[in-house]
Amino acid sequence: MAQFMTLSEAVAQNLNSGDTAAFEGFTHLIPHASAHEALRQGIKDLTLVRMTPDVVYDQLIGMGAVKKLIFSYAGNPGVGLLRRLRDSVENGWPHAIEIEEHSHAAMANAYEAGAAGLPFAAFRGYKGAELAKVNPNIRSVTCPFTGEELAAAPAIRPDVTFIHAQKADRKGNVLIEGIVGVQKEAVLAAKRSVVTVEEIVDDLHAHPNACVLPGWAVTAICLVPGGAHPSYAHGYYSRDNASYIAWDKIAADRDTFLAWMKDNVLDARPEDFADRIKHLRSAA
Amino acid sequence: MSDTDFTSNEMMTIAASRALKNTDVCFVGIGAPSAACNIARLTHAPDVTLIYESGTIGTAPQVLPLSIGDGELCDTAVTTVSVPEMFRYWLQGGRVTVGFLGAAQIDRFGNINTTVIGDYDQPKTRLPGGGGAPEIASSCGEIFITLKQSKRAMVDKIDFYTSFGHGEGGDHRQRLGIATKGPTLMVTDLAVWKPDPVTREFTVVSMHPGVTREMVQAECGWTVRFADKLEETPAPTGIELSTLRDLNARTKAAHSGGKTGEAA
């Protein structure tokens, strides 16, 4: 049953150095506040999983918290490359990280296999694609009925998944709306899960077919308004595209990056996120 | 700039937009493809179905999204599905007629690299990676590609096969058991290219107004083949140009201020 607690408590109780952790979000609802709390608590040696690592994974990698990255697209969407990731892969700063690279189809299928309790995912993919040659976790299986050769990837089973959602009710049931991404699968695939939410309400007022995670399927819930910033929460505030564009300059220089991280992450608190989204609040 | 003048980038976007039909279901890559697909929707193909890999199906954004998952895409979509459903039911299920891709590096057979420049383990430049492209390239009915020409982008040999085009040419796709057509069109800022029916090598079939063979060759890393019957790409119409410029102006205003129009 989901327990309500502060983000500081939730990270301390559910994330350990050396864990395999997913901070999921597909452009929308990216759990920035949770990742920042992990950095403040000095968590190290993480194997990070995410389909679309962007700014917040650039921050975790640049701060030296990451041992390995499992991913399918690493970029600052619409802006450019991830400069801290590049510095790690190309120059070994602050240290080299191990890379396990898949396609989106493979990652999505592998999360779904994890949620379904299966050992691997089978799908039609990677035909002629060179990733299969550099990633030993991309293999193939033969369909026992048709003989078709299909691609196979191991299920993703994180120790802990962090997501951000719009709201939870007082029993801990969580509602996710808008671009739902792969968050439901990522939570159900993980041993533990931490959900930060914009608000806690008496009634979710959810449509019968809405994307709801029952409270008994979630480990911890933390109230962190604005916790997705500079990503967005549909119905609450819009994506801070200007911050994504600004990140390209901040991340371009090691010292500028470290100074920014000290001011905005290490010396900040989860409560600071609420101020960051004030100018992005929906008119509704 | 007068109403009849246009830049090579505008010509590229508009020429690419003309390839989409009103009945197409198109998986849209971010950047240049996104602009072309939305110009198609705002001009000759109002009912084209645009799909972004964030799960938004039948989307009709007022401004171009900065990312594949901007709120604008969800707000204007017919429906928004989960990412696993997107890749399993809609893409792998064979329901997408056209995949529209950009490319960091491409060869004459439409093989695309967006993974690394240099060696995979010791890359000179680590690029974002494939994302949805490896399966878009094999699961969509056909692939359209649009990119700005340069010798850096159009190379004799790509550093990494992120997504498979026509491989080494000829029937290479069939030999790998891929049933879809693969790249059937490439639109650059200088020309329109189509694969040779036998060798599958991209061949210039139409040059944009004012462009010469020498100009196409100067920005391409392989020896360019030109069709026997070489045509001139029709110049942008007034409607096409004003639609594109209005869209770009709305987009610029939305992304510089932080608020993305009516998003969220």
From TrEMBL, chain A:
InterPro entries associated with the record: CoA_trans_fam_I, NagB/RpiA_transferase-like
The superkingdom of the source organism is Bacteria
* Coiled-coil spans in chain: none
Identify the keywords attached in UniProt to this record, alphabetized: Transferase
Q: Which GO terms describe its molecular function?
A: transferase activity
Q: Which Pfam families match?
A: CoA_trans
Q: Does the UniProt entry include the keyword rRNA processing?
A: no
Q: What is this protein called?
A: CoA transferase subunit A
Source organism per UniProt:
Hoeflea alexandrii
TrEMBL record, chain B:
InterPro entries associated with the record: CoA_trans_fam_I, NagB/RpiA_transferase-like
Q: By its UniProt entry, which SMART domains does this protein fall under?
A: CoA_trans (SM00882)
Q: Which domain of life is it from?
A: Bacteria
Q: What is a single Pfam family found in this protein's UniProt entry? A: CoA_trans
What is the official name of this protein in its record? CoA-transferase subunit beta
Q: Which organism is it from?
A: Hoeflea alexandrii
What is the taxonomic lineage of the source species? Bacteria, Pseudomonadati, Pseudomonadota, Alphaproteobacteria, Hyphomicrobiales
